[in-house]
């Protein structure tokens, strides 16, 4: 690699370099800092993310391939990176008070989140199965550790263990698929695969490879049949980490899925049938099992499975609108899901866990504004207008119908009617039951800021979706 | 584009709701809500004054791009059909505020906010000229209505609210898919007028007809998807029941008129016999169920199912008399049944019972109340001289022209109506007093009279001189009929 190429590559990956370098520096500074002065790590971490965001924005103008075809900085990656930055910064803002209450106030927490962020950024930009793998592993290794961060709690340990074991298996499956692809096509680059594939459309070996790669990726987004870890990991992890995992790594998983499936392979195989089946089953399972949950975090875990299913419908639709619909869906989901998690996190105070749905009885009586916010996020998750959640679903349905998958669209809406039930059930508990206890939410300024941002996103995108829609459509690769 | 009158009418209640959020005193909340709704009504009267009855074209139109990439616009406008319902919605806006004045004594602010938001959304439904916009209003209505039933309703409110929510949501979501299919077949636009002008193949029309039918039938509600209605009506607070009866039930029929008939003419003509049979079934079945009720509110609720059967009957008779009768009957049902729910609410506030068997001899205790009750009961059973007579007569003559057997069945339903309504009135108002020995209740006061009087005036006005009301809708109805028959075949 010549020096110019190296400089070009470094430039293209400047945001990743910023985040990783920042994380390394903070790792050291965090150790040096005296006890009780750890707060600067939060603000320093946010600053790192903002600098990376600035670098990303400056590079957004043109497409920059880098590292000999392993990596690309294009508008598609920029869109996803923006989602990751948003999710990470909001997670940082939600964390300090919660970390204090749970006694996990050490700097590694923030550093690990930064490393996870860099992994996701690599995933969004990867154009080679190997760089995808690097990003993927960097992300999940950090989330494994973060899931087990409540060391004194048994369920946190259990969650981490389950997550690690199942995650390693899925990684193995993914790598096996990659090796098959390499064996059959002689390349791991996505473009190279596309070229190899077009001449030989119905190779059963390739189909098998596709199945393995799908399986590996499907694990990361928590879709059926690799969803088993989701409820346990989500319930056991610190709630801030659950909030983070439910949006950012999931979006990263979708970024990879979109790049892998809608670029080279879809022309070669009937992979969309597999994805369609996965989407239907995922949504059905998530929606129906969520009906019987009493634990808020577990319910949100199943809800996130159901949402992953809905987003997969956008993948099935394919085409420019399909890709854009998934991207918009993930952006909107980031706002509304971090919002509802913000509420759950805020509730954790003193001896109050904020995790049992019935504990929210009569919340509207004492905290009108917060109850109204909860209502907003829940109705948005249920997909009711005029919230953003409705537009997210609407656009996926438009993409589906555009490609003639009307039956899938009907299935999707019927399942969302089922899903609406459990969100409405929480509204019912909040508004229609008598309070059983006094509420004392841990409402710090930074939590307030998070709730304000997520609420603005949830309402704003719902009322004025045009700009965000154009952004998503403009960020679709090749379109 | 001129003065955005329709936007003002639609969003004024929403702005009012925003203002209410900052008020602390319950009385201030009540008066502000009343002020906002009266002002909205006044704007609505101004709109009607400037309304041109000679044309079927959309008036007071406003268009702004909203999501250009998908062909979505913010488009409002009204024709004669919408004008009537905008008027009805605005009228019941302040009547609902008056009806909840003392009946709602906890979380007054939240209630009035829900009420005003609800009104804004309902007005939006009738004014929207873009399908996406229409759907946003249509679906968002679920949220405040769910809250109104679920928070301020009776003992079984949570179940009733949930049932209402899930029934209508499931129906509307299928409608949404239908809308998107229509979007792609109709040239990638959500513009209602453009879609109306578009010709679709019969098979596509058929599928869409049933997708729309499910959504609209749930809202009407038609048998057999009517079961949410009695629950919702019985559990809802008075204002909630009034909104349901007066406006919400009209949405389904309005959907048939605005979408099914003009956009899917061939399918509408083809499936009209099915719809006629379903309507006759609703008329008779609803009537029989009403006959068997002892709960006042349930009786009125089931009578609604029967009365809305007349509306769908008139619509799918697909002739001028049927269609004009149906629309007039929608209006009449709103006025009369809205009033009846108001009356049930008034008596319930005083006695805390709704069982017909508990009453008797109200005429001595509350003469003004019973006198007005008589008027609305007679209107509900379509006595000549009242509004419903005109509407029902038109519907029946339209139905006989379309299909004599169905018309005959509808007449049986009308007789059933007389039976349960007269029976109810006899037991409640006449005879000796039964509610304990010292049975004394307060007669209607001035505030309540203010809510009742305009409705009573409308009952007699439409009954004795329906011409202005038919005049408003005439041009638009004729236009809908031309659209159906020129493109859909039939008569």
TrEMBL record, chain A:
<feature type="domain" description="NADH:quinone oxidoreductase/Mrp antiporter transmembrane">
    <location>
        <begin position="126"/>
        <end position="416"/>
    </location>
</feature>
<comment type="similarity">
    <text>Belongs to the complex I subunit 2 family.</text>
</comment>
<dbReference type="GO" id="GO:0008137">
    <property type="term" value="F:NADH dehydrogenase (ubiquinone) activity"/>
</dbReference>
<keyword id="KW-1278">Translocase</keyword>
<keyword id="KW-1003">Cell membrane</keyword>
<protein>
    <recommendedName>
        <fullName>NADH-quinone oxidoreductase subunit N</fullName>
        <ecNumber>7.1.1.-</ecNumber>
    </recommendedName>
</protein>
<feature type="transmembrane region" description="Helical">
    <location>
        <begin position="40"/>
        <end position="60"/>
    </location>
</feature>
<feature type="transmembrane region" description="Helical">
    <location>
        <begin position="241"/>
        <end position="261"/>
    </location>
</feature>
<keyword id="KW-0830">Ubiquinone</keyword>
<dbReference type="InterPro" id="IPR010096">
    <property type="entry name" value="NADH-Q_OxRdtase_suN/2"/>
</dbReference>
<feature type="transmembrane region" description="Helical">
    <location>
        <begin position="72"/>
        <end position="94"/>
    </location>
</feature>
<dbReference type="InterPro" id="IPR001750">
    <property type="entry name" value="ND/Mrp_TM"/>
</dbReference>
<dbReference type="GO" id="GO:0048038">
    <property type="term" value="F:quinone binding"/>
</dbReference>
<keyword id="KW-0812">Transmembrane</keyword>
<feature type="transmembrane region" description="Helical">
    <location>
        <begin position="449"/>
        <end position="469"/>
    </location>
</feature>
<keyword id="KW-0813">Transport</keyword>
<feature type="transmembrane region" description="Helical">
    <location>
        <begin position="163"/>
        <end position="185"/>
    </location>
</feature>
<comment type="function">
    <text>NDH-1 shuttles electrons from NADH, via FMN and iron-sulfur (Fe-S) centers, to quinones in the respiratory chain. The immediate electron acceptor for the enzyme in this species is believed to be ubiquinone. Couples the redox reaction to proton translocation (for every two electrons transferred, four hydrogen ions are translocated across the cytoplasmic membrane), and thus conserves the redox energy in a proton gradient.</text>
</comment>
<dbReference type="Pfam" id="PF00361">
    <property type="entry name" value="Proton_antipo_M"/>
</dbReference>
<keyword id="KW-1133">Transmembrane helix</keyword>
<dbReference type="GO" id="GO:0050136">
    <property type="term" value="F:NADH dehydrogenase (quinone) (non-electrogenic) activity"/>
</dbReference>
<feature type="transmembrane region" description="Helical">
    <location>
        <begin position="369"/>
        <end position="392"/>
    </location>
</feature>
From TrEMBL, chain B:
<feature type="transmembrane region" description="Helical">
    <location>
        <begin position="111"/>
        <end position="129"/>
    </location>
</feature>
<feature type="transmembrane region" description="Helical">
    <location>
        <begin position="405"/>
        <end position="425"/>
    </location>
</feature>
<feature type="transmembrane region" description="Helical">
    <location>
        <begin position="204"/>
        <end position="222"/>
    </location>
</feature>
<dbReference type="GO" id="GO:0048039">
    <property type="term" value="F:ubiquinone binding"/>
</dbReference>
<dbReference type="InterPro" id="IPR010227">
    <property type="entry name" value="NADH_Q_OxRdtase_chainM/4"/>
</dbReference>
<keyword id="KW-1133">Transmembrane helix</keyword>
<feature type="domain" description="NADH:quinone oxidoreductase/Mrp antiporter transmembrane">
    <location>
        <begin position="128"/>
        <end position="416"/>
    </location>
</feature>
<keyword id="KW-0812">Transmembrane</keyword>
<dbReference type="GO" id="GO:0003954">
    <property type="term" value="F:NADH dehydrogenase activity"/>
</dbReference>
<feature type="transmembrane region" description="Helical">
    <location>
        <begin position="31"/>
        <end position="51"/>
    </location>
</feature>
<feature type="transmembrane region" description="Helical">
    <location>
        <begin position="164"/>
        <end position="184"/>
    </location>
</feature>
<protein>
    <submittedName>
        <fullName>NADH-quinone oxidoreductase subunit M</fullName>
        <ecNumber>1.6.5.11</ecNumber>
    </submittedName>
</protein>
<dbReference type="GO" id="GO:0042773">
    <property type="term" value="P:ATP synthesis coupled electron transport"/>
</dbReference>
<feature type="transmembrane region" description="Helical">
    <location>
        <begin position="269"/>
        <end position="292"/>
    </location>
</feature>
<dbReference type="InterPro" id="IPR001750">
    <property type="entry name" value="ND/Mrp_TM"/>
</dbReference>
<keyword id="KW-0472">Membrane</keyword>
<dbReference type="GO" id="GO:0016020">
    <property type="term" value="C:membrane"/>
</dbReference>
<dbReference type="GO" id="GO:0012505">
    <property type="term" value="C:endomembrane system"/>
</dbReference>
<feature type="transmembrane region" description="Helical">
    <location>
        <begin position="71"/>
        <end position="104"/>
    </location>
</feature>
<keyword id="KW-0560">Oxidoreductase</keyword>
<comment type="similarity">
    <text>Belongs to the complex I subunit 4 family.</text>
</comment>
<feature type="transmembrane region" description="Helical">
    <location>
        <begin position="368"/>
        <end position="385"/>
    </location>
</feature>
